[in-house]
Each structure stands twice: as C-alpha cells, then as structure tokens.
Amino acid sequence: MDKKVFAIVNPVSANGATGKEWPVFEKTIKASGINLDYAYTEYPMHAKFLTQEALKAGYKTILSVGGDGTMNEVLNGFFYEGMLINENASLSIFSRGTGCDTIRTIGIDKDVDSIIEVLKFGKIKLVDVGIAEFIQYEGNTTQRYFLNVSDIGIGAQTTYRVNRSSKALKGFLSFLIGALSTMISYKNKDFEITIDDITINEKLNSIIIANGKYFGGGMKIAPMADMSDGYFDIIIIGNISKFDFLLNFPKIYKGTHMNHPKLLHYKGKKIKINAKQKALIEVDGEQPGVIEANINILPNKLKILV
Ligand SMILES: Nc1ncnc2c1ncn2[C@@H]1O[C@H](COP(=O)(O)OP(=O)(O)OP(=O)(O)O)[C@@H](O)[C@H]1O
Question: How many domains does the chain have?
Fold first, then answer.
C-alpha cells in the first residue's frame, strides 16, 4: 500500500485519554500495513497548521485523532486563503473526544479496528462544508469552516459552559448537565434572521444550522440532515418557555421533537443572523465568538473517508 496517512493527534482530547492511548493505536495501525506518520498538537488551532503543512508536503489522507474540536481544526487546515490545498486529499476521523457528534452522522465507529478498515478499504464521499463568518472575542471578524453543526443561542451558551469545565463525565452527561444549568439563566433573544430570501424578526431561543444530524454529545437535533445534499437544515427553536423546553428536551436525544409547534424547519444555503442582545456562536462543538454571523454552504466540497 503506497498511500501515506498523516495523523494529527490531540493528546489532551477525551480528558487526556487520547495522549495515553495513542502509542498503542499507532503500533496497531502500523502493524496493519498502513504507512503512518503523525504529529501531536501542542496548543489550540495547532491542528489547522499541522494539516496545512502535511497537505503541502503531499500527504493525501489526513487522520484527525481527537474530538470534534480537533476534527474542526483539521478541516480548517484543508483550506488556505479560501481554497482547498489539495482537492484530491481526504479527511478521515478517528473520534477520540467526549462528544463524537460528527461521526454519528457519517457512520464511522470509534474503535481502532474500524479506523484501520476505513483507512484501508474506505470509500470516498463528497460532503458539504459550512463556512461561518462571526466576531471573535477579540473583536475582529473571522471565518471558520465547519462540517457538522453551527448554532446560535442556548446550544452555544451550553458549549461555552461545558468547554470551560472538565468533561470527565463524558459527552452525554457533560452536555446534559451543561444544558440544564444553562437553561436556568438563559433568556430568549430578539433575532433577525435571513435564510436565502426569507426574513424572520422574532424573539427566539436558538437557531441551529445543521450539516450533520447530532450535536451536544448525542442530541439528534436535525434528524433529516444530509451532509451531501447541498443544503443546511435550519432548525429554529422559537420563543419557548423554560418549562416547555424542559418538558420536550428528552425528545431531542431521540430526534422526535420536530412536531413541536414552536419549532420551525427550513432548508437553505445562505444565512445571516443578528440579535439585539449578545448571542454566542458554536461551530462543531467549539465556541469561538459571538454574532453577527453570515453562514454559507460549500456544496460537495470535501472528500471524507467512510
Ligand atoms: N496540546 C494542547 N494543549 C491544550 N489544548 C489543546 C492542545 N491541542 C489541542 N488543544 C485544544 O483542545 C480542545 C479540545 O479538543 P477536542 O474537542 O478535540 O477534544 P474533546 O473536547 O475531548 O472532544 P469533544 O469536542 O468531542 O467533546 C480544542 O479546543 C483544541 O484546540
């Protein structure tokens, strides 16, 4: 096999378990005959730089080893100045985080044998990529690519809380506790949203812009989402009361929430969001800033291994 794989390994993901387990995974992957090189990430956003370097050096398969945050940084490293560095390169995901929401839609397992199978015999699938423009905490406008979900409102507020606490309880419990604690203090906001040519001006809870189906450590927020259909599925949680939210919250895990009268669903390619109050944005499980945001889809942009 002449295909060389470059792994970007985030040793602090999954509360440090990835760093401890990687030497064994490395041996197992190499023993299967895969030609593997790797680098550890040393600081936030390092994975983006390492990916750019690996692609420029000619590697065509990049393996993200970490959580959804690492996957997002690796995805961002596929691009340089708005262009894919190599249109023939593909992303493979060895999900070692706490949330693992992206692979739930793609349908890849988390164990090393499944990853070896994907690296050796996996098929290439073209998927849509989202690009979100928003305001960083430092005050400057920036852009970030995403593969899974971007959301504005209670989900982003929960991520802000969860990413600043230990995720030792693993994804499901960390996000469940985070969401319930956030709900107590969260206030619905006056949003102005434009989805292609539709404009909505209303007090709302949240806007979820989904390419994948899951977020928040296993919540099936957009059961209809398809990563290759060229559209976002946009879920708007309306001006719901805390009691109503709490009552219906368990349904989100099963994906049976969509018939709630305060939920709206749109398909769209171009979304602009602003609010009278401060509102946080989440991108693939990271919480990098606030709105105003402009979010666009790049249809069938990226090759992933499935
Ligand atoms: N060496 C490092 N030291 C500190 N932080 C790092 C390092 N390398 C990467 N990071 C940061 O670690 C954060 C968490 O990574 P990641 O999201 O992959 O893991 P996780 O939080 O365990 O998983 P998930 O998002 O799926 O719950 C990212 O924001 C990333 O920028």
Answer: 2
